[in-house]
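Hello K.,

You asked for the raw outputs rather than the summary table, so here they are, unedited. I folded two proteins back to back in the same session to keep the settings identical. This is the first:
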Amino acid sequence: MDYRRSYVRDLFLLAPGTETSAYGWVKTRRDSKGISFVQLSDGSCFKDLQIVIEAGVIGEEVLRQITTGACLRFDGVIVESPAAGQAVELKATGAELFGPADPATYPLQKKGASFEFLREIAHLRARGNTFGAVFRVRNQAAFAIHNFFHKRGFHYVHTPIITASDAEGAGEMLQVTTMMESIQPLEGDEGQISYRIKGHNPADDFFGKPAYLTVSGQLEAETLALGMTNVYTFGPTFRAENSSTSRHLAEFWMVEPEMAFCDLEGDMHLAEEFLKEVIAHLLDFCGDDLAFFNQRIEPKLLETLEHVVTSNFEHLTYTEAVKLLEASGENFEYPVSWGTDLQSEHERWLTEVKVGRPVILTDYPKEIKAFYMRMNDDGRTVRAMDVLAPRIGEIIGGSQREERIDRLEARLRESGLSAEPYWWYLDLRRFGSAPHAGFGLGFERLLMYVTGMKNIRDVIPYSRTAGHADF
């Protein structure tokens, strides 16, 4: 056995009469008139391979252990299948049992299970239809993202996971420290620990200053763009938001391109190209998986995705959007007025009702955007942009960055941030500053959009949220 063995997806392409082997896990088994029919999956594709076992071909001891969840190799011959929905099946000539599974205790049974329950057995849920499909789409989406930037000459860079600065100025960061005074079991629960942080000067800590898990790789990516022109990051980021909504994670992945010699218009153009190309790739390479989501999770999913790929995105300023919302006559849960951040209901109304296709909003009030965004000449708005998509609202956020040091220092003061932690960021404006722009896309938000899954915990293998860090 080695990694070059055939995947189940490859076996469907073999001609009848071909001798081969199939590896995988049993989904179901049924017996009829001395013949056993086994549905085998190895996760390589949505379709299961049917294994036909005639009486006497496999020893009784092994046959008895071919139950749901068991892992085996079946040797046999590819034959034409009389069953609907499958062209071929494997007629078994032998089998090797790698790992049995007790059918009485195996938690992933044929009957349906709630997504909440499946999160409790996240170590097994990839064997099911839904999560096998989710993680295959995740894999192809990651490949499409890297391919998109590679074809355009971007450099893939790795920015720090541990940082001393807060890119967004939000303060919702997870601290990294070794200053623990004591570690001891909680009373009554030997499996848990508690600790207290020493009351020492931060200079005594491991990094000699307060350090955190990063909320974004953007600022560091800017330093590399202003020396390598076009770069992108694709890595984990962290937020300490104490939220239990279906849209928040404490650990998630971000895609963040940065481009020197680029303005907001170029940034918008790249974002539109990016979204269309990644979705088009998934439509081409994940057809069976997306068809499943279209049928079982989100009706009209395929229609929505195809519409995004073929649409010309509408461009509106934030001010224009607010006027449209105010004149809509809709009874929104959150009132709309200039200077307030738009909510998902506002973004969906714009894309689904008013415009009927994706929208890129620009030129937001400076008070609701980050300090690093370039100030417009009106002194009230910044060169920010958000890409809004039907069914989900904001999916990409970006801006032209402020390249003028005096304006950047003023924005730091206005935002109540000390310039000292950003000395290196300010240096970029002191030494060979250049216009530059970029955007950020939450990878899990994209996956929710392309699969129709309703909870962000269900598009990442192991979710990290407040109070939950299992597995």
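The second followed immediately with the same parameters:
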Amino acid sequence: MKKNQFAELTITAKEQEVSTDAVAQDRAVVDAYVQAVSGARRLSLNFRFLSARYDLDSKALRDLERMVDFLQENGGANGEVILAGFADSDGDYRMNCDLSRDRARTVQAELRSRGINARQALGVCEEMPVASNDSEWGKGKNRRVEVWIK
């Protein structure tokens, strides 16, 4: 947050270590994610989703436009864009895997319609939560699509 209490809207890309220390229900899913983002930089922008949904709301569509502008201005439109979708832990694990992949593919399709080719859209299921799934706030943080660029 800035001093004036407005949320920072500037998108940045930074190198980020991915920790695989957490217990995984499916280690192959985590390994595929780590391999996909290895050597990539993560954008500061995440797309968030309502429970059991994979459609983009009006805020996400505005964020998508900001992200397209960022990629075009910073050469990322010519690089490799990787989308990683996630789910919270509510419901069946396999259904959450499908949902997380559908979220990433939704962002991929929207990018494609704007001239950006995201070469990879993977579902990471409910693995690697960024917040506790014991609260609605935490679940909301975990229902996301991360954007990485190489």
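The chain has a mean pLDDT of 91.

Happy to rerun anything if the numbers look odd on your end.

Regards,
P.
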